[in-house]
Amino acid sequence: MFTTNSNSNSIDPAMILIVEDDNDLAELISMHLTFQGHDVVRVTSLELARKRLDSTSFDLIVLDRGLEDGDGMQLCHELRQQQNWLPVLILTARDSEKDRVEGLESGADDYLTKPFSVLEFQARVRAMLRRKNHMADSSSANSVDTDNPP
Predict the structure, then answer these.
(1) How far apart are CA 118 and CA 38, in angstroms?
(2) What is the pLDDT of residues 26-67, one digit of tens each?
(3) Domain extents for the chain?
(4) Are 60 and 17 within 8 A, CB to CB?
(5) Is there a cis peptide before residue 87, judged by omega within 30 degrees of 0?
(6) Which of 19, 25, 127, 137 has a CA positioned 20 to 30 A from the CA of residue 90?
(7) What is the third-level CATH fold of 14-130?
(8) pTM above the 0.90 mark?
């Protein structure tokens, strides 16, 4: 029998950027993320995503590949070149093995193809945010306090 600890699904509210040009889909995932307590910003293009990334601190990006002004994978690649390790979940209709491998190789942390299960999407978001929070906790625990040595 599978049981879960209620604390394992508890994630601090996050600021999430959705880059998706399908308004109905963007609304659906925005609604589910907001219901889970997250703050969501939606944009429809790479250009708008870059502007928002320059002005706002995000915890996660949900990124489509097939946008009017280019492939979302390019934005992911740009972030990694800038040493920006913001978690990226690619959500796309491009479902071939080659597409999935290219997406992950571009620096994406996860790759989910459309159509998708909302429950699986939510679980993947929680997993990515848990990893991000764990990495932040680990790095702060490992940092040296030079002002107050032991």
Answers:
(1) 15
(2) 999 999 999 999 999 999 999 999 999 999 999 999 999 999
(3) 14-130
(4) yes
(5) no
(6) 137
(7) Rossmann fold (3.40.50)
(8) no
